[in-house]
Amino acid sequence: MTITRTDWEKRNGHRAGVVWFTGLSGSGKTTLAVELEEMLFERNVRCRILDGDRLRSGLNQDLGFSEQDRLENIRRTSEAASLFVEAGFVVLAPLISPYEAGRQLARQRFESEDFIELYVRCSLFECERRDPKGMYQLARAGRIPEFTGISAPYEVPANPELTVDTERYQVRQCAHSVIEYLETENWIEPMRTHTEAEVKR
């Protein structure tokens, strides 16, 4: 007997799919993904973060930051994500994904209902102010070539399924917005209140 994705989804009690984060370095993509993972875990949702930095230190360590290498980085990440989707997981993929072509490449790997493009909006000014890894400072000094937002472009998504603004709102608020969207799209069940739970008994 072959265990299918449908079998896993029935066992898990939720849909599988990919939430593909895009945004500048320092916009809060990974922080948001970690917050979402915690919230989904509390709901017994099987999920997995495919963090861009970790992938680049392992699976994609042979890739640089040229446009072609960035596309290959996304292609490999999409393939890894598809394996988790087949196993019934909600995949959270926080990558800068600066080019529209790359995001379309990721989107095309999945059925339309299985892919959510999440734009994590935050101004370059604010990302530089945060600069959690000191990368912008190095990029401004010319020590990091092809750095998105400084010496390489970032193409703002034209039609993402969802946008959250981490400059205006706290991470927890942004995470709740994503959870509400997943509920609306029937990926996960809405949380029942205590009263609703009592009625079901």
CATH classification class: Alpha Beta
- Proper CATH architecture: 3-Layer(aba) Sandwich
Structural class: alpha/beta
Give the overall shape, derived from the CA principal axes. Answer: globular
List the domain count as a whole number.
Answer: 1
* Rounded mean pLDDT score: 93
Q: What is the H-and-E element order? A: HEHEHHEHEHHEHH
Q: Order of strands in the sheet with the most strands?
A: 2-3-1-4-5
| Topology-level CATH name | Rossmann fold
The beta-strand count equals: 5
The radius of gyration over CA amounts to 18 Å
Largest sheet: 5 strands, parallel
Q: What is the number of helical segments per DSSP (H or I, 4+ residues)?
A: 9
For the termini, the CA-CA separation is 35 Å
Which homologous superfamily in CATH is the superfamily? P-loop containing nucleotide triphosphate hydrolases
Helicity level = 40-55%
Strand content: 5-15%
Task: Please mark out the parts with pLDDT under 50 across 5 or more consecutive residues, or reply none.
Answer: none
